[in-house]
Amino acid sequence: MAPRNNATLTRRKGARIIPRPKPLMDLEALANERLIDAAMADELRPVAERFSVSITRPLADLIDRHDANDPLALQFVPDVRELSADPLAVPDPIGDAAHSPVKGIIHRYPDRLLLLPVRVCAVYCRFCFRRETVGSNEAAALSQAELDAALAYIRNHKEIWEVILSGGDPFLLSPRRMSELLRELERIEHVRVIRIHTRLPIADPARINATLVNSLSLAKPVYVLMHTNHPRELTADCLNACALMIDSGITVLSQSVLLKGVNDNADTLEQLFRKLVENRIKPYYLHHCDRAAGTAHFRTSIATGQALMRELRGRLSGLCLPEYVLDIPGGFGKVPVNAASVINDDSGVVITDPSGVRHPYFE
Ligand SMILES: *Cc1c(COP(=O)(O)O)cnc(C)c1O
Ligand code: SF4
Which of 12-21, 47-56, 99-108, 280-289 is predicted least confidently? Predict the structure, then answer.
């Protein structure tokens, strides 16, 4: 007869339930974990009332309590600077509302749209451009009727070639609901490609388990875009979660936001991009930080981003280089802004090489 503890082990494995430790979702929890000074809680209360707070255990474990400027703390721990006057802030920085024909859909480009099935995240990034619409004050997920209406919109627009699940974090859907949603999309013939934007491999890698990954297995290609900003986010658990997806046939890409104090130097970006490529993840976009409310302390100038990109171009394999993009405030679309190397004016074209030397180009 098998020993009792063996039986328990087998049963646990069969259930495939991973108990997740509770995230830290209020200032008291953050103070208990020494992520904020308890004396600061009162000052931070208005921040937490305005913008959602959540830090998952795996991320909390990565934060260095002894470094006030720790790049992971800066990204996730609420900060009084979020309430500073911010004259450049735009309420809906990339113009989502103007392009939302039905609830949960943002359709700005003819061939592709965003479908936002959930409006909550596992972790709340302090610089998020959707920070006014994601979080605990919103309904967590689309209702079945809303989801049906969104799917009907996609069915009725034959020009939609790609559906991008974004959020909130779509991977917070249960594997069963994820699977149902993907089957619906799979049935729509003109939808050829499915993309999923997520931060979960960083925030809570254990949730990217075999059940979730199985739910992503479709006849249509699935691309996963992981949001990551700092090489320390790429833990062994995170990279194993990505490997699980890649080994099952999913293409994994990354997107990052250029953030002052977090990754606005060539060494940090170099480490981040190399580590991604070493793990079969292609850096796709480096976003210029959007002008969301209370994020002024994260913004760099575009010139800073261009100089970084030029330096990286000289140091790194092209495989490691994302496109540096800006979402034009107001919803006018994303444009590449890494072209500091080309000046094209009345006097002709001048191209600056990676070491900063200018070369006239005749055409
Ligand atoms: C960013 C974005 C996309 C995706 O753009 P790509 O350049 O294809 O990555 C699509 N729709 C909206 C509304 C977006 O903001
Ligand atoms: S995970 Fe994405 S949507 Fe959620 S808070 Fe962070 S940046 Fe915003």
Answer: 12-21
